[in-house]
Amino acid sequence: MRGVSEWFAPTLAATVIAVAGSCADSPVRPTLVVSTPTPQLSGVFPGVQRELRPVLAVGNAATVGPVGSVVYQFDLSTNPDFRPLALSGTIDQQLPRTLFAVSSDLLPGTTYFWHVRTIAAASGFASPYSAIQRFATIDPPPPGAAALQLYVANGCRTFFGEREFTVYGDLIVSGSHWRFTVLPNTNADSTIVFNLAMELEQTSGRLAGTVHGMAMDPIGFPINIYGLSGSSPASVAGTVGMDGTAAGTLNGVFNFAHPSFGLGDVCTGADIPWVLKPSR
User: Fold this and answer.
1) Contact 109, 137 (CB under 8 A)
2) Could you write out the DSSP letters of every residue in 26-54?
3) Residue 260 CB-density burial (10 A; 0-12 exposed, 13-18 middle, 19+ buried)
């Protein structure tokens, strides 16, 4: 079985031969080289990835010859032999590197393995797969807790490599009123959570209200949620699904900052998606 590498893999090259026309018309066959992409960190800290919808990053592969457009195939599995696949998808090459965003929730509390290969879109020629990478998703919510997930925009995860912030807490639905609160040290994705509350009113299946608060993630980044005018609560709106899950958008400020570096990314005024999943 192939070995497991946490993040980095040496770049390998696969040489493939394309026949241009018949042998009589083209006695010299062009050589096309499509090399293996190199998995990379998606943030500044190794091994931090734990989201249910992670973003996987690769350094773009080298090519030689008239390869044409290039795509990358990402495979994910809970087994290092990739049988069965949990997810497989392709994405066009991006610059300066290529990012693949998992579009639906993975299983919580699970280790996933992934690898990637380069494919010449026109010919179908493919490189070998990269070395196997792995990451673990956040733990499932404790019994009786609900999960609140916020999905930040691309520009808000460039420094941290994070796309999703998830906290677990208490959800009380009383009549048309929804209240979600998080107590300190009660969830898997943050070490300290305080003053985090979402207040929603439901009318004909639609939700409207506010959210505010602050949390500290496992590597020491304070995470703040507040309105556009400053420290006031941010506005939220959404709908309730048939399964009792609520989803919608947050309009305000979602800020990550490092207490030592003073660095951070801010999503301001964007329609930031959120999902509130009651306990089952």
Assistant:
1) yes
2) -SSPPEEEEEPPEEE-SSSSTT----SS-
3) exposed
* CA atoms in the 13 A half-sphere facing the CB of 229: 4
Closest of 128, 133, 104, 159 to residue 7, by C-alpha: 133
Q: Walk across the sheet containing 55-59 and list its strands.
A: 38-40, 55-59, 97-101
Question: Where in 102-142 does DSSP place strands (E)?
Answer: 111-120, 133-136
Which tokens hold the place of 83?
């049988």
**What is the three-class DSSP state of 155?**
helix
Question: How many other CB atoms are there within 10 angstroms of residue 218's CB atom?
Answer: 14
Write out pLDDT tens, residues 21-42: 444 444 566 666 788 999 987 6
The two structure tokens encoding residue 193: 């959570």
What are the structure tokens assigned to 38, written together?
Answer: 């190199």
Collapsed DSSP state (helix, strand, coil) of residue 156: helix
| Cα–Cα distance measured from residue 165 to residue 181, given in angstroms and rounded to the nearest whole number | 15
pTM of this prediction exceeds 0.85: no
Residue 247 in tokens: 């989803």
Residues 246, 206 contacting (CB under 8 angstroms): no
Q: What confidence tens digit (pLDDT) does each residue in 94-132 have?
A: 988 898 988 888 998 899 999 999 998 888 889 999 999
Structure tokens at 210: 């506010």
Non-local (6+) Cβ contacts of 40 within 8 A are 7, 8, 57, 58, 59, 97
Scan for tokens 């734990």, then name that residue.
50
Q: Residue 164: count other Cβ atoms within 10 Å of its Cβ.
A: 21
Two structure tokens written together for 142: 């404790």
User: 């004909």: which residue's tokens?
Assistant: 204
Give CA–CA dist 90/100, Å, rounded: 8
CB 27 within 8 A of CB 144: no
Residue type, position 18, single letter: A
